[in-house]
Amino acid sequence: MLINNDTIVKDSDPIIRTKSKKVKLPLSEKDASLLRDMLQYVKDSTDKEKAKKYNLRPAVGISAIQVGVPKRMMAVVVDDVDKNGELVHYEYMLVNAKIVSESAQPAYLSSGEGCLSVVNDHPGYVVRKARVTVEAYDLASDKMISIRARGYLAIVLQHELDHFDGRLFYDRIDKKNPMKKVDGALVI
Ligand code: CO
After folding, report:
1. What's 182's DSSP letter?
2. Considering 49, 86, 102, 160, which one is annotated as catalytic?
3. For residue 99, how far is its CA from the centre of ligand 1 (angstroms)?
4. How far is the CA of 182 from the centre of ligand 1 (A)?
5. Alpha carbon distance 40, 185 (integer Å)
6. What is the C-alpha separation between 59 and 46, in angstroms, rounded?
7. Going along the chain, which residue ranges are E strands?
8. DSSP per-residue letters across 44-94
9. How do residues 132-176 score in pLDDT, each as one tens digit?
10. Are 38 and 67 in contact (CB under 8 A)?
C-alpha cells in the first residue's frame, strides 16, 4: 500500500475515530504485507532524502487505522537510551497489542505529542503511564512477545494503542490547563 502524507487519514475524517478490530492469527499475507509497509513508512520517514522525495512526515509509530484499515496493528521504531545510558533501538510490528500491567506513576513528554493524523498544533501535556507491559504478536520476531517499556517507548506504545480505540493524543490534554504540572510524574 502506498503510504504518504496524502494517503494518511487525518483527524478531520471520522474514520480515525473507529475502534479497530482484533486481527486473526496467523496473519494473512495481506495483513502481513500492510504491516510491513507501515514499518517501512516509519523507517523511511526519518530519512531526510526519502521523506522529501516520497512526501513522508517523520514518525516513530503508525497504526493501521491511520491508513484507513480498522485492525489492531501498529509499527513502531524508537531510539532511546536505557538506564545505563546505552543507545537502544526498538523495532516492532505488533498485532492485537494490549496493556497487561501499568505503573501508577504518570508520565508525559515535556514537548507534548504529535501525530501523523493531526495537522493542527495541540500544545499541552499528554498524561500517560510511566511504565507499561504490552503483550502482542510481533511480526518482526514472528512470535508472541511481552514488552516491558518505560519512558519514551512506553509513551509511544500508549499513543499507538489509543489509535486502536479511536483516541487521539489531544483527547488526553487538560482543556482548562494544558500545561498543568502532574505530581510525581515522570517528565520525559
Ligand atoms: Co498518532
Report:
1. -
2. 160
3. 17
4. 23
5. 33
6. 7
7. 61-63, 73-81, 87-102, 106-108, 128-129, 131-138, 143-150, 186-187
8. HHTSHHHHHHHT----SEEEGGGGT--BSEEEEEEEEE-TTS-EEEEEEEE
9. 999 999 999 999 999 999 999 999 999 999 999 999 999 999 999
10. yes
Q: Which CATH architecture has domain 14-187?
A: Alpha-Beta Complex (3.90)
Q: State the pLDDT at residue 104.
A: 98
Contacts of 78 (CB under 8 A, 6+ apart): 60, 61, 89, 90, 152, 153, 156
Give dist(CA 125, CA 41) in Å, integer.
27
Give distance in angstroms: CA of 115 to centre of ligand 1. 4
* Domain edges within the chain: 14-187
The predicted pLDDT at position 82 comes to 86
| CA 175 / ligand 1 centre spacing (Å) | 19
Q: 128 near 29, Cβ under 8 Å? A: no
Instruction: Verify cis geometry, omega within 30 degrees of 0, for the bond prior to 26.
Output: yes
The C-alpha atoms of residue 32 and residue 107 are separated, in whole angstroms, by 32
Rounded Cα gap, residues 59 and 76, in angstroms: 9
Cα 159 to ligand 1 centre (Å): 6
State which residues of the chain have pLDDT below 70.
Answer: none
Residue 160 annotated as catalytic? yes
Distance CA 154, CA 138 (A): 16
Q: Cα(143) to centroid of ligand 1, in Å?
A: 25
pTM: 0.97
